[in-house]
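Troubleshooting: if your tokenizer reports a length mismatch, compare your output against this known-good record of 304 residues.
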Amino acid sequence: MAAPTPQPAQSPEHLRHGLAEAPVTYARMVWRRFRRNRLALVGLGILLLLGLLSVLAPYISPFPRDKTDLKVILAAPSMVHWLGTDELGRDLFTRLLWGGRVSYTLAISCVAIYIALGGLLGAIAGYFGGWVDSVLMRLVDVVYSFPFLLLALTLVAIFGPNVTNLVFAFVVIYWTTPARLIRGEFLSLRERDYVEAARATGASSWRIMLHHLLPNALAPLIVQATLDLSVIILAEASLSYLGFGVRDPVPTWGNMLTSAQSVTVLAKQPWRWIPPGSMIFLSVLAINFVGDGLRDATDPRLKQ
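Known-good structure output:
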């Protein structure tokens, strides 16, 4: 029998490189899957660009946000006013930048608050079950029974149309979606072996929920939060278009579209409604691309 062929010895450099290789963490695996989706990367790039322009609005705006100039009322786009002016002589490019700042801030604030609130209530319902689950889910059913637009208009009409009340209205309406999502995740996770082991060691219910169950339920919640950003941007634009959203002089892309209610503006002054409409379209499309990419990247059924 022939002697086995001796294997070449590994050099110290090779060993050092092997030890230096970082383990494949969950976050790295998600990023690896996400960057394979070209549409998701394009959407992320668009969002980063629009977000950067919105953040830098006070520094790159050519005019003060609310500056009026009666000499250039309803002026067409020019070298001075790149997107023209509105009925008060305010520069529309400036207001477009500031409008993105307000719209993005409103959307992120709303989603952060109601994801936290709905996630907490859904976690309580899913973990404890029983009458707690029944009460919270019946409350969810009550909120779901109201049409969104009717409930939003009612709340804004009662409390007044401003940014704070709009955030309150959206939180009241939309907390139900993450609550149901987290409840379903907790119902499937609370009987796992590692949860039983944590109970056996004497861990409290809140520790089990926060340290063992919640990290395993975060992936669908992050995807839902990302997609909900586009929902809030569209909801704010709808209410502002109807006159129940953020009021002038605070600009948002939604209330900039209010001028499009006029047939004259639609036909003869497209610079007043096409730019804000385009920003809403690009933002919603980009957010949906990113959300779809995250959903695929966090799907455990996909291979690495």
